[in-house]
Design goal:
It is a single chain. The longest helix is centred in the first third of the chain and has 17 residues, at about 85-105. Helix 3 packs across helix 5 (about 120-130), helix 4 (about 85-105) crosses helix 5 (about 120-130) and helix 17 crosses helix 18 (about 615-625). It is built from 18 helices and 31 strands. The protein starts with a helix and ends in a 6-residue tail after the last helix. It has about 625 residues and is of the alpha/beta class. Bound molecules: coenzyme A (COA) and adenosine monophosphate (AMP). This is Propionyl-CoA synthetase.
Length: about 625
């Protein structure tokens, strides 16, 4: 069947479409229907079914006689380690870990924070929670103690599972001291912490609170899978909003399983038994959906890659992994390709490897610029599919469903809507606009299975952030347009979220940190264009009256402050002192205008600006730190 037919089939009979997709999942009790709309505009899927995510990701493949198939390949150029874990081995390891957690009181509905680097144990921890019906919340290792503490206080975990350390090029990231620091700041305290001691750094355990990953599993009964309701939260994943308080995206269990499983063949075009690789991190949604759950639920082999696209040891690492492990579909962020292209523009490393098994490259997480797409396609000689989605949706909103039909790829576009998504472009008043017209990208409710039903402990915020601006729609926070053939083009965010190396960050959160510096009276953080990372944060600082310390000293302290509070992943290294910030007459800081000045783009003088002369001052200050570049 062609894409158009499948999309139309969904549109004409969404209930039938999703009930059929649900047949690919093992249910303890089958759901009576797909959509539950009794509480609209809040929706649920498969709510009265009973299911277990770990069973579907692990045990069922063993039961089906495929236990010897490799489930996880761990390839860590940064530690010179490789490991292969079969489905049966994974089942045994996860059941044992789940048994140990249960023996210490972790039960269905309890939250468990996971703070781990890219090691297979991170997936095992996620799956062990799923086995018990416990709700995991993975925190990315590049976040600092404060961010971890905020998440601990929000989701109140019974237990935290962490590794002793992570490894970044040239340095060991001391996870355990970061965890200890977070627990000093957090009001909520977990009952216990499980620490995976890595040989690169053995951490000191706190008597009475911390247990050793291996030790605490000794002699316990392995746990069976606990059936949960279809709408039971599988996990909470915090993502950046406009303020310093991250949003806890809730992922419901059944819809997640159905949608992810559907996407593996239809979008990513892999069959069970084939190798699928998403080079991301378990701390991001790509890692949840496409390193852990989707490939395993679909019976693929997934790769846990601990390294970087360049420097571990060179710009050929990705090609080595693809050829050595026979990767069929590969998914990463455009930034990774920009980094490789910069190191190896002629593709000398590409030539060294046999990449003939690779079928398609998938890019997401940030805008894919045409240069990068063309370079990737020319080097790898496979179609390059840009696809667009968000932490909130958990799987692609638009893309080219290569397993259905190899529709034309249009460079600059992130493709066509997946079944389940009715994507529309709206004007400010909420009316749909015609083709090729820029507007807010919105999705007609209900969103499909697998997407967020609400925010953790924050239903009001969910309604306000996503549902209220355009009644009847989910507001994505992106701006873009749709062409006459139905292809979507994402152009920019409509809020203060920026995208740095494929990592979603809040400028508002950085402003909150900077405002705490005693010498900073007022500040703004904007996202400026960067050739490698797409965007970089840049701080504009107004100092408190009477401060006469060297500005460079204050700037350095501010950079350290953001790194210390939010973490190195913020990549906050640019800041400049200014006398005043440009504002509208009602006092709103004109961030978008400052972005245009920093990027050297034309801009229209905002009609509501209070004092246009301030823009010249901003331009002069930015010039002192090399903006606009080039
Ligand atoms: N734990 C601790 N620190 C981390 C970390 C982690 N898991 N991940 C990143 N960091 C640190 C980095 O070491 C770096 O620190 P530094 O300022 O001391 O150098 C900082 O956070 C910024 O990291 P990053 O943005 O990744 O930049 P980089 O300069 O280290 O690497 C790239 C550049 C392009 C190679 C890298 O950004 C990359 O691989 N990006 C792909 C992004 C991706 O997969 N996104 C997921 C969405 S699909
Ligand atoms: P995250 O929740 O971290 O996945 O970030 C989601 C945001 O990243 C989206 O709202 C977009 O702003 C951006 N994004 C993700 N994928 C794409 C893409 N293919 N093209 C353009 N922007 C993207």
């Amino acid at each position: 069947m062609a894409y158009d037919e499948i999309y139309a089939r969904w549109k004409n009979d969404p209930e039938g479409f999703w009930m059929e997709a649900a047949e690919a999942i093992d249910w303890v009790e089958k759901p009576s229907r797909a959509l539950f709309d009794g509480n609209a505009p809040l929706y649920e899927w498969f709510a009265d079914g009973k299911v277990n995510a770990c069973w579907n990701a692990v045990d069922r493949h063993v039961e089906a006689g495929r236990g010897e198939q490799i489930a996880i390949i761990y390839d860590s150029p940064i530690t010179h380690t490789k490991r292969w874990i079969s489905y049966v081995e994974l089942r045994n390891r996860v059941a044992q870990l789940a048994g140990a957690l249960r023996a210490r009181g972790v039960e269905k509905g309890d939250r468990v924070i996971i703070y781990m680097p890219m090691v297979p144990e991170a997936l095992e921890a996620m799956l062990a929670c799923a086995r018990l019906g416990a709700v995991h919340s993975v925190v990315f290792g590049g976040f600092a103690a404060h961010e971890l503490a905020v998440r601990i206080d929000d989701c109140k975990p019974k237990c935290i599972i962490a590794a002793s350390c992570g490894i970044e090029p040239g340095r060991v990231v001391h996870y355990k001291p970061l965890l200890d620091g977070a627990l000093e700041h957090a009001e909520h305290q977990p009952e216990f912490c499980v620490i995976l001691q890595r040989e690169q750094e053995v951490a000191k355990l706190e008597e009475g609170r911390d247990v050793n990953w291996h030790g605490f599993q000794y002699g316990v009964e392995p746990a069976d899978c606990v059936p949960v309701e279809g709408n039971h939260p599988a996990y909470i994943l915090y993502t950046s909003g406009t303020t310093g308080q991250p949003k806890g995206v809730v992922r419901p269990t059944a819809g997640h399983l159905v949608a992810l499983n559907w996407s593996m063949k239809n979008l990513y075009n892999v069959d069970p038994g084939e190798v699928f690789w998403a080079a991301s991190d378990v701390g991001w949604v790509v890692g949840h959906s496409y390193i852990c759950y989707a490939p395993l639920v679909h019976g693929n082999t997934t790769i846990v890659f601990e390294g970087k696209p360049i420097g571990t040891p060179d710009a050929g690492t990705f090609w080595r992994v693809i050829s050595e492990h026979k990767v069929r579909s590969f998914f990463t962020a455009p930034t990774a390709f920009r980094a490789i292209k910069r190191e190896d523009p002629k593709g000398e490393f590409v030539k060294k490897y046999d990449l003939s098994g690779l079928r398609t490259l998938y890019l997401a997480g940030e805008r894919a610029d045409p240069d990068t797409i063309n370079w990737a396609r020319d080097q790898l000689k496979v179609p390059v599919v840009d696809h667009w989605w968000q932490t909130e949706t958990g799987w692609a909103i638009t893309g080219i469903p290569m397993g259905i039909e190899q529709k034309k790829v249009k460079i600059g576009s992130s493709g066509l809507p997946m079944p389940g998504y009715d994507v529309q472009i709206l004007d400010e008043a909420g009316h749909p606009v015609g083709p090729d017209t820029l507007g807010a990208v919105a999705i007609k409710l209900p969103l499909p299975p697998g997407t967020l039903p609400t925010l953790w402990n924050a239903e009001d915020r969910y309604r306000k952030s996503y549902l209220e601006h355009f009644p009847g729609y989910y507001e994505t926070g992106d701006a873009g347009m749709i062409d006459a053939d139905g292809y979507l083009y994402i152009m920019a965010r409509t809020d203060d979220v920026i995208n740095v190396a494929g990592h979603r960050l809040s400028t508002g959160a950085m402003e909150e940190v900077l405002a705490n510096h005693p010498d900073v009276a007022e500040c703004a953080v904007i996202g400026v264009a960067d050739d490698l990372k797409g965007q970089l944060p840049l701080g504009l600082l107004c100092l408190t009256k009477g401060v006469n310390r060297p500005e460079s000293e204050i700037v350095r302290e501010c950079v350290d402050l953001v790194r210390g509070e939010i973490g190195p992943v913020a990549a906050f290294k640019l800041a400049v002192v200014v006398d005043r910030l440009p504002k509208t007459r009602s006092g709103k800081i004109l961030r978008a205008t400052m972005v245009k000045i920093a990027d050297g783009e034309e801009f229209k003088m905002p009609a509501t600006i209070d004092d246009p002369a301030i823009l010249d001052e901003i331009a002069a200050a930015l010039k002192t730190i090399g903006f606009p570049q080039g």
